[in-house]
Amino acid sequence: MPTDFTATRALFDLPEGVIYLDGNSLGPLPRAVPARLQQAATAEWGQMLITGWNKAGWMELPTKIGDRIARLIGAEAGHVVLGDTLSIKVYQALASSLEMNPDRRVILSDTGNFPSDLYMAEGLCRTLGPEYSLKTVAPEDVMDAIDDSVAVLMITEVDYRTGRRHDMAALTAKAHSVGALAVWDLAHSAGATDVDVAGGKADFAVGCTYKYLNSGPGGPAFIYVAPRHAETARPALSGWMGHEKPFAFDLDYRPGAGIERMRVGTPPVLQLAALDAALDVWDGVEIADLRARSIDLCEAFIEQVEAACPMLELATPRDAAMRGSQVSFRHPEGYAIMQALIARGVIGDFRAPDILRFGFTPLYIGLDEVAGAVKILAEIMETGAWDRPEYKTRARVT
Amino acid sequence: MPTDFTATRALFDLPEGVIYLDGNSLGPLPRAVPARLQQAATAEWGQMLITGWNKAGWMELPTKIGDRIARLIGAEAGHVVLGDTLSIKVYQALASSLEMNPDRRVILSDTGNFPSDLYMAEGLCRTLGPEYSLKTVAPEDVMDAIDDSVAVLMITEVDYRTGRRHDMAALTAKAHSVGALAVWDLAHSAGATDVDVAGGKADFAVGCTYKYLNSGPGGPAFIYVAPRHAETARPALSGWMGHEKPFAFDLDYRPGAGIERMRVGTPPVLQLAALDAALDVWDGVEIADLRARSIDLCEAFIEQVEAACPMLELATPRDAAMRGSQVSFRHPEGYAIMQALIARGVIGDFRAPDILRFGFTPLYIGLDEVAGAVKILAEIMETGAWDRPEYKTRARVT
């Protein structure tokens, strides 16, 4: 049965008069979340108190939800766990990788990677010592830069600015061929594209849940460890929840079984409850259908914008196979244009220096919204409505 | 005006028929939290979507709430920030300390410290290399073990099992006298005792909020960096939210101003909203009043239990100055006794191998509950009601 995207759309609570093309920054509120949050706060925390860890199943939420996400990223069940933030999960994956490849000292990434991934790698190298380094090349040069000096390749599958998609299987195969490991950041691909970490042979994968998985602001991150590494990867961030027996309160750390060892501290139960409710939206969704519809939406947007707004330059690859589920255009006045759009109810995002970014999430966006957004964008460009001082004052967060 | 603890008690939603002496594991639900959570989910996330980061002030929550906690731990305003879990904050504090003391290789702690702190230190040492080590001594031997080999002293102010309280000022002074830094874990003292990180000259302090600060299961942790280190401590976990300009998306990390650099990833807005509401309880509370009443409650409990239950052995120091806000007793059948108590509505906690642990939080516990709990405990001990098979089967979480 093909996925019913009219039905999924009805599961979201979107404000009237808004065309929301920024689900790749923060997904909108699924209707089921407020009630689940209330349940977690009042019926669970309020009434069960400390016994909620057992009675309400809080302790198992990180792995139970991990299995729900595993299906969406092509991972084997039992090999994904939730917790912390994406930056922390990047650090865990990198530190484990470097420890598993002890004769090498280079983390390879690209300049299109999300800066926090690069910052975490920098921090890890500084902790490890001056012989360790982070090397970054241009996105299109990654394949050629993978050589036998590389300990671990760290790549974000879909570029947060341009929407360019890296070929996970090909880059990972090249990494493996020279004895390197591969860590994949799925921040802009989990829930957006047909991710396949098992098929792509990723060693580690990490991602966040507040974008296309709609868990709400600051929702927890996830980490995947390939089954072949599950019992050998040692966590550098060795917290009690990743211990073999957390409640034995032993003085020495022993890693827990498999993916459990990637847990660190006490799980954020309220945010996990919100995420759990948000994932209900995915129950009837086939990823192949999602991907097909995402491509339709992006193609339609590109075609219509290029026809109506010739002054905008496409920053996203034209080949659908090379894209995630977003479309970006460049314009020197991109910031002001985005503010004018937002003032008219079309919410996208601006990324320095000149990128207008639009995310297309088939769960709640259809061809009507594509046409509606293009109409407003075209009006703004034709009338120069963006050229007002209040659209040029930059807020701290955009 | 003295603190009105009748008023603070009315701010909590405690189940009928329960005497809750486990606020040192998980604080109960403040009545203001559910509405604040709903507001964050529906009015903020649901309606503001991505603009909530500015319009609802989400981005500033970690430092704004940090200032509210600063008052409760004797910290200077502007030097506490929220985020992550306590284990992650321990790692940050230790990694920064070791980097600030580069000629030394030893982390000194004690065997009464919470195991996750020790595990995180172990993990950090493994990442740093074989020349680094974690040394643990008995709690009473810490002072003598501080010598000029020690890079950083890592101590939890109040012992999670026995309630024994270390002397922050004295141990920190000794550490400084030999050129070591001091990291203090306030998990069992923030909101429970008269913590004074500035007066005690702590270099770093960390703590969790889901115990005596009542933020709910998995609420975020906090970190304090002494003002003298604010601009020099370099975070090993260098995430984008700790960058000088997160939204410039620079490729290189530059630490943010002061405490901001201890932020890592995207803050958990829903859990922070719950915490913010939970902290309203503290608005009229003077810490000196809290401490005085905490001592009264603990003294009364010790006196009454020792009179009624001579077979229980006090595990907590008899001198109030040497205690936090909990009282522990030992008994070989401690686990079964605690299950019998819980079955009768007195919720305390068991900690292996033989500790019955009772937390006394003046915000919602009074002398009536002390007497009520002792009455039930005495009945259980006199009748041997704990000696039933169902009380001896151990659940995963206790």
From TrEMBL, chains A, B:
Catalytically driven reaction(s): L-kynurenine + H2O = anthranilate + L-alanine + H(+); 3-hydroxy-L-kynurenine + H2O = 3-hydroxyanthranilate + L-alanine + H(+)
Chain residues that bind pyridoxal 5'-phosphate: L86, S87, F114, P115, S116, D117, T156, D185, H188, Y210, W240, T266
Any Gene Ontology biological process: quinolinate biosynthetic process
GO cellular component: cytoplasm
Pfam family, one: KYNU_C
E.C. no: 3.7.1.3
Pathway(s) this gene product operates in, as recorded in its UniProt entry: Cofactor biosynthesis; NAD(+) biosynthesis; quinolinate from L-kynurenine: step 2/3; Amino-acid degradation; L-kynurenine degradation; L-alanine and anthranilate from L-kynurenine: step 1/1
Co-factor(s): pyridoxal 5'-phosphate
Highest taxon listed in the record's lineage: Bacteria
Molecular function GO terms recorded: kynureninase activity; pyridoxal phosphate binding
InterPro entries on file: Kynureninase (IPR010111), PyrdxlP-dep_Trfase (IPR015424), PyrdxlP-dep_Trfase_major (IPR015421), PyrdxlP-dep_Trfase_small (IPR015422)
Hydrolase as UniProt keyword: yes
Family of the protein in this entry: Belongs to the kynureninase family.
Function recorded in the entry: Catalyzes the cleavage of L-kynurenine (L-Kyn) and L-3-hydroxykynurenine (L-3OHKyn) into anthranilic acid (AA) and 3-hydroxyanthranilic acid (3-OHAA), respectively.
Subunit: Homodimer.
HAMAP family on file: Kynureninase
Name of the protein this chain belongs to: Kynureninase
Species assigned in the record: Pararhodobacter marinus
